[in-house]
Amino acid sequence: MCSTEECSHGLKNCIYVFALVGHLSMHRHKQRAGKEGQVLHRSKRGWVWNQFFVIEEYTGPDPVLVGRLHSDVDSGDGNIKYILSGEGAGTIFVIDDKTGNIHATKTLDREEQAQYTLTAQAVARDTNKPLEPPSEFIVKVQDINDNPPEFLHGPYYARVPEMSNVGTSVMQVTATDADDPTYGNSARLVYSILQGQPYFSVEPQTGIIRTALPNMDREARQEYDVVIQAKDMGGHMGGLSGTTEVKITLTDVNDNPPKFPQSVYPMSVSEDKVPGEEVGRLKAKDPDLGDNGLVNYRLIDGDGMSMFELTTDSETREAVIKLKKPVDFETKRSYTLKVEGSNPHVDPQFLAWGPYKDEATIKISVEDADEPPVFVAPSYTFEVEENAPEGTLVGRVHAKDTDVANNPVRYMIPRYTDVEQFFSINSEDGMITTTRPLDRETQAWHNISVSATEIDTKVRVNIKVKDVNDNPPEFATNNEVLMCETVAPGKVIETVSAVDKDEMAHRQHFTFSLAPEVAHNHNFSLKDNRDSTASIYDVYYLPIEINDNGFPAMSSTNTLTIRVCSCDSKDTILSCNVEPYVLPAGLSTGALIAILACIVILLAIVVLFVALRRQKKEPLIVFEEEDIRENIITYDDEGGGEEDTEAFDIATLQNPDGANGFLPRKDIKPELQYPIRPGIGRPAANSVDVDDFIKTRIAEADSDPTAPPYDSIQIYGYEGRGSLAGSLSSLESVTTESDLDYDYLQSWGPRFKKLADLERERERYKQIKRKC
Q: Where are the CATH 2.60.40.60 domain residues in the chain?
């Protein structure tokens, strides 16, 4: 074994080189010699080394000597050259090629790279021929405590329930150290608490934080800032340390009952407040949060429980006292309520700390308000006779002031309730009187209001107008009565009844009698049925007097119109006289208007019809001269000349049976008729051969010297051959109307001049018709 200088450049540690490789080589040579049976001599090993060590973070002025390489073949004459290669060779590590000394030129950090692998070789300086095979060695960077512990995930946040027991785990914190944990105590950490005592503690080896005090109250303090330290070197002096902050929050539990700040709450309410209005509020304090601090309220006692009610404001969580019924200062001036506030959610763990409820008393005083006068009755109903004179007393209303002051009351009638001002009222005593006579038949009831002021208050007053018998009775209906002319004397033809605008008193009825002017008429009679009806016997125009038996008695004469009608044997009315039997009936205004309207409509229809007829008779084209077209005869066929004025009847050709008889001429009867020659044959009577029939008739015509061929078929393909006028046939007329020219007709004489004018006007009319 060889080594470097014992202490070099002031280093605290010495570097040792172990000759392990040489021992291994000698052992292998002995094994080989034993196997071959030969005596082997140990060869001298050139390299005696294995690994070097260098301390990290060296900051001296000179390079650090890592180690020295030496070969046995090196005689010190400088012929051997040492070569170094591998990690950091030439940059971090340099070698003296003559002496083999290896130096570190830079500061090394084990946390960046813990070791370096290098290769050394000895060669001849002049030829660079290797004298020894290359060998590897390792340079290890020896650790020093140059890295403090670090908390990689800080700061930390933790939560723990309030009132937790001592030793309750809060959380665990862990620090890391970059130094070598296998070398010395550089990475051996110990935890301690620097801030947060005496509330919390930390386990030195694990870093678990625990509670250190009992009954930590969130309501007293909610958050704690704890500082934890981690120190290496086992916590001994000289070790490096790191710290982190832990923010610990106490969570809420229901450990506090609700509490009213006051035991008695005074409130007041005015007597003019309406039910539903708020009287006051109160709130029990509970320092707990959320559901733990929720408080429910209820009324549990007091003489005002029927007059007031309690609700909870969902936003402010206050108990709201509201008026349930109207209060009256004059009746009761104060009320007492007892309110309870309690937690609906109680933690069984803290049940023994209860009770979780509290009580308070509310004293409510009723305040006096200037209330309006109050009428003795909610409404009034009076009666007054119709036609009573002005100033007649109707009745009296009375109101009183319920306030302690008892101020006087003033009365008035609002005009909108008595528009026509039938009534007036005394403003001091409330006496109501009429201002004019009243008519029950015009308005039976008068509904007015009376105001009573200190503060305006109204009461309804209903005034009924009492009836006076000032209207005579009259027929209930004014319908006409129809009577058969053959009715037997004494038969009832109608029963009449009466009505009266006045009120009918009990047992009051109508009586009927004939008017004095017809009392002795023998054509009719009337029977009073004593039930406010009367029966009529045989009557025409019948004046009837009706009496109502009232006080004073009123009567009237009403005329009943009866028409005499013709009836069948079953007394079914067939027709009636248009006019009453005695007096002629005049037409009503409506009937006259209807008749006049019908006459006007009929006249309008006649005038319209005549106008349409005139319009149809007017010609479409008016000629200055006489229209001669009515003398023109249109022929659809062409016949046998000027003397033939009748069209040829072809029915004979369609019915060959008609050829059996002899057909004489229609215009001139021949003097002699020759019999048919027996040698000429005729077709059979039932023959339908038209060709044979024509041939037979031609033969007969040819053999008759006295008669022209009146029944022969004449075909005119063209007329007037050789004539200067040309053909007049419509068969060969020009088809286009625009090519027609009638001026040449004027040269033929006065007869054709009129024809040319007529055809020219006819063409103009056709053109106008096409445009339309």
A: 47-142, 150-251, 264-367, 374-466, 474-575
